Amino acid sequence: MLNCKMIMKTDILGFNLLALETALIDMGEKPFRGRQIAGWIYKHKSNDFLKMTNICAPLRDKLSKKFLIGKIQPLKTVNDKSSTCKTLWELADGESIESVLIPDKDRLTLCISTQVGCPLNCQFCATGRIGFRRNLAAGEIINQFLQTELGESERITNVVFMGMGEPLLNFDNLLTALEVLIDDLCIGFGARKITVSTAGIPPKIRSLADSGLNVGLAFSLNAASDHLRDLLMPINRRFKLQDNLEALQYYHRKINRRITFEYVLIKGINDSLKDAADLAEITRGIPCKINLIRYNPIDGSQFRPPDNKTVYAFRDFLYPRTPAVTLRESKGANIAAACGQLKAIYSKRET
User: Fold this and answer.
1) Which of 9, 58, 154, 291 lies in disulfide reach of 68, CB 3.0 to 4.6 Å?
2) CATH number of residue 49's parent domain
3) What is the mean pLDDT of residues 104-122?
4) Is the pLDDT of residue 88 over 70?
5) How many domains does the chain have?
6) CA-CA distance, 49 to 13, in Å (whole number)?
7) Percent of the chain having pLDDT more than 70?
8) Distance CA 324, CA 287 (A)
């Protein structure tokens, strides 16, 4: 009777340089082989060991038996008139995520997801309505960049971790993905062109500062009082504003980059001049810029965006009182561009 064992291959995409070198040393090879493989996977975007021509044939064969180079598959791509492009990706286990490619003058920004769904249940975001499925592996995070860049004639200039999920709740895989993105022997993307967004996890904000990766940090604020933020963002019941503000100050001191405060304006909820005054007060003393974003309506929500008069009054009140204020014009509204909405529509149709 034959005793057949299924050989499970490890997905090597998402390994940082140290992990690649260690894997090759464990196979009895020199560390430089790991650097060669990093070049093939991350710079040449190869998914076939047998095509790595500067690696000897016996090693290519051993690698193909032990490892695989994972891929994510595009399920659906939609574009709007501004050329904003949202892609729904299928993962190996059948789950799906989305990324968004946003052109803006001389920039081409890729918005990347870090989780399938989201556990935070922010009241203005469609992704929270999906619920939390799982964290993405580092390779699944990186693959959004690699697969998007493969299909683009123009080079991606900026990467923002503002897609589905809370990046700092998938901290280890986020860190590995950042290392792969930034390392010159892997992708070699500039740290100053990368921003991580968070709803506010103070211990992880400090850990990200201590990592030395020097990426930008955006804080999804949306309310200048704990009472209102508790209602809009349940995570605030665990991590209060003051705790987050102290962590953000630590981040700035450590990294010497200004903090971005993201503030979604919701009609009759957080859009008054009193709200603007409170926002100016709590951000005082933190080198920052404030991005104002009109609420983008989602199905089943009672929230609405404010009118232009209210939005402009809010912005104009802030500007002389804060260092930098930007009113971000939403792109992709006619292709359901609210955070996580494309995935939500997909889930709804499948259930």
Assistant:
1) 9
2) 1.10.150.530
3) 94
4) yes
5) 2
6) 12
7) 92
8) 9
Q: Is residue 3 domain-resident?
A: no
Tokens of 28: 């009895």
For residue 140, tell me if it sits in a domain.
yes
Residue 5 lies in a domain: no
Distances (CA, A) of 350 to 62, 248, 299, 311, 344: 40, 40, 17, 38, 10
- Stretch (H or E) spanning 255: helix 241-255
Q: Which of 98, 140, 166, 262 is catalytic?
A: 98
- Mean pLDDT (whole number) for 159-180: 97
Does residue 94 sit in the same domain as residue 40?
A: no
- Same structural domain, 33 and 173: no
Tell me the pTM. Answer: 0.93
> Lowest-confidence range among 59-73, 227-241, 331-345?
331-345
Asked which of 37, 52, 68 is the last residue of a domain, the reply is 68
CA distance 167 to 182: 17
Across 264-272, average pLDDT:
97
Q: Which residues are CB-neighbours of 307 under 8 A, at least 6 positions away?
A: 267
Do residue 38 and residue 147 come from a single domain? Answer: no
Residue 4: inside a domain, yes or no? no
Residue among 298, 233, 306 at smallest CA distance from 269: 306
13 vs 110: CA distance, rounded Å: 19
Residues 54 and 81 in one domain: no
User: Which range of residues forms the domain containing residue 103?
Assistant: 73-350
Question: Catalytic annotation on 95?
Answer: no
61 and 182 share one domain: no
Query: Among the options 122, 125, 186, 339, which is catalytic?
Result: 339
Active site residue 125: no
Q: Which of 309, 313, 255, 310 is nearest to 286 (CA)?
A: 255
For residues 275 and 314, give the distance between their C-alpha atoms in angstroms, rounded to a whole number: 8
Query: What are the b/e assignments for 171-207, b being 16+ CB within 10 Å?
Result: bebbbbbbbbbbbebbbebeeebbbbbbbbbbebbbe
What is the rounded radius of gyration, in angstroms, for the C-alpha atoms of the chain? 22
Give the CA diameter of the chain: 81
Of 68, 90, 118, the residue at which a domain comes to its end is 68
296 shares a domain with 169: yes
